[in-house]
Amino acid sequence: MSVRRFRMLSLITTLVMAATVAACADDGAPEEAAKDQTLTVWHYERPESAMAIAWAEAIRLFKEAHPGVTVRFEQKTFEQIRQNAAMALNADDPPTVVEYNKGNSTAGLLAKQGVLTDFTGESTKRGWDRMLTPSLQTTTRYDTDGIMGSGAVYGIPNYSEFVLVYYNKDMFAKHGVAVPQTLSAFEAAMDVFVKAGITPLSVGGAEYPAQQIFYELVLSKADRAFVDAYQRYMGNVDFTGPAFQFGATTFASWVRKGYIAKDSARVKAEDMNLAFMKQRFPIVIVGSWMYGDFVRGIKDFEWGTFLFPGNRLHPGSSGNLWVVPAKAKDKSLAYDFIDITMKPEIQRLLAESGGVPVHGDASAAPTGKNTDLLAHFATIEAADGLAFYPDWPAAGYYDVLGVAIQDLINGTKKPDEVLADIAKPYHDNVVRLGK
């Protein structure tokens, strides 16, 4: 055999073997890859909430569609993720997809720091951007300074939320109190309960709820230009102006008048909600995220809801975001999971369970109390009334506001002093941003 022929036969044999190996690899690769893939989901919604119910179904559908993938769900608390997100999401082996709070001080900050994945292209490809109204898209995009409303997409919500007033219908009827339509009528209604020896409002001053009451009062004297200036740095913010002055002085007066208990500065959100459910207070002001819990948890009295009286603007936005850590493995699995949470059947389940869906015909599905919730949200959307949340503008502002509102509850500082306390870190951030 000539050297040339030997080399030719060797080459043919090598090519055949390579093709055989490649064919075997092609046949087995998807299964082997799937076995090595893991979807780790973090969220902090209570199991009874509409979001948790819908997302549990989304996880089930994901498992059906990805039989070889390991799925791990890890329940967290709001405070756990709020306090530890920067470190946990920037670890070498972070979760694949995480529920994270939206806004400049949270998602915006991590986006600016490079901790989160920019998945603008994925959002466009899968049509998520077309499922969200412009107001809901505000919290999905962040610029290079971490300010929401423009720039790349760093997160996707699959529900909406807003703050509203829940009331005990039985207690209102017993004391002859009608649902108020104005702020003055709301105060008059609370006066009736105070005269009867009942503190009207269940308030969690140790966490976010008290801040949101303060913000509702601020918003009663505000407009869209105020919100854009405060939240998106699109104008000057005057903490001595009528909106903030009214919010601080009125909140302090509500404590003096007995609408808010003086020991509520130590009360956490969960305890606040439980106290309302146990009929210790006739009213609680909290987000739509509690709606489903109240539907399933309140059995011994009738209750209802109304929007904060007289306000066109309300604390609210898209729901929390699904974000993907920049260092996450198997990012395609995260996108597949997010996509499932946006499907019509998950959106309908969310609505049926007491949540507010972001798109589709889910609003036609619920009956009973849930129709009231969706009607409230429709009213807010029609008025362009989503005003975001008071702690969003700057990193660390949640803690600044928390201390400030506790000072109002405890009476340790006057309203002007409290406003000065919250003005300084805000304006310091304006200087840092060069706005």
Automatic annotation (TrEMBL):
SUPFAM superfamilies linked:
Periplasmic binding protein-like II
- Signal peptide, first to last residue: 1-25
Please verify whether the record's keywords include Transport. yes
* One Pfam assignment: SBP_bac_8
This protein's species is Actinoplanes philippinensis
For this entry, the protein name equals: Raffinose/stachyose/melibiose transport system substrate-binding protein
PROSITE patterns per the record? PROKAR_LIPOPROTEIN
- What protein family is recorded? Belongs to the bacterial solute-binding protein 1 family.
The entry's keywords: Signal, Transport
